[in-house]
Amino acid sequence: MKAVVLSDNHTNYDFETPDGDILIHCGDFTFHGNPNEMFKFKNYLKEQPHEHKLFIFGNHEKVDKEITYWIEYLEDGTGAKCIHEKAYGIGDLNFFGSSYTPKFMNWGFMQDEETRERYWENMIEGMDVLVTHGPPKGIMGQIEDGTEIGCEYLRKFVDRVKPKYHFFGHNHAGAGVHTNGDTLFVNSAILTEHYQMCKPPIVVNL
Predict the structure, then answer these.
(1) Pseudo-torsion of CA 2, 7, 11, 12, nearest 10°?
(2) Could you report how far apart the first and last alpha carbons of the chain are, in Å?
(3) Alpha-carbon 146 to chain mean position
(4) Of 143, 128, 120, 135, which is closest to residue 178 (Cα–Cα)?
């Protein structure tokens, strides 16, 4: 099964989306989550021919308080499924998504340290594919100036649960693929920190 993984296009659709069985967007498909940006993402989802299309939100989607409305809007007529805080099965693979990242300024889907610790300590287990917006601490989580923006509690969760795959974005400077022997990590950001197109979506054989 071939997965096409991307994130952080911020309303820039000037790229080719490879063919595959599953399209997975790890969030930040907008700059602010305004209706026009959401409309563009919905059209993008609708145009893609992949049999399965999964997405979560990112911190730039400032729609926390209207999340039910926007999930229904983006799923309607697109064949896509939002897996934010949802378990979802495709064939023999179990997927789970979470849009939350460490708190930074006034963006969406952010949690303070105490909340993140409690959240990941009590998270369900048993997923084969974990989809988050942000990286786990220490894995493709350093931005250009060397600051680490990964979540330490997400890292502890991944180290304990050992999903086969962990897809994320958020850190535009860390795009790429890494494995620790248990989990294949994919940072799927396609823009640089200066919002220039730099990488295509990443194709992973699941």
Answers:
(1) -70
(2) 5
(3) 22
(4) 135
CB contact at 8 A, 174 and 191: no
Q: What is the model's pLDDT at position 63?
A: 95
Residue 3: C-alpha distances to residues 53, 106, 155 (Å): 10, 32, 23
Q: What is the pLDDT of residues 166-190, one digit of tens each?
A: 999 999 999 999 999 999 999 999 9
* Residue given tokens 């595959």 in the structure block: 20
43 near 74, Cβ under 8 Å? no
Token pair belonging to 114: 């105490």
- List Cα–Cα distances, 87 to 12, 84, 106, 153, in angstroms: 29, 8, 28, 20
Tokens representing residue 200 in the block: 């295509």
147: helix, coil or strand?
coil
Is the CB of residue 6 less than 8 Å from the CB of residue 187?
no
Tell me the C-alpha distance between 185 and 137, whole Å: 12
Confidence class for position 21, pLDDT limits 50, 70, 90: very high
Beta-bridged to residue 94, according to DSSP, are 89
The two three-digit tokens of residue 76, written as one number: 């309607």
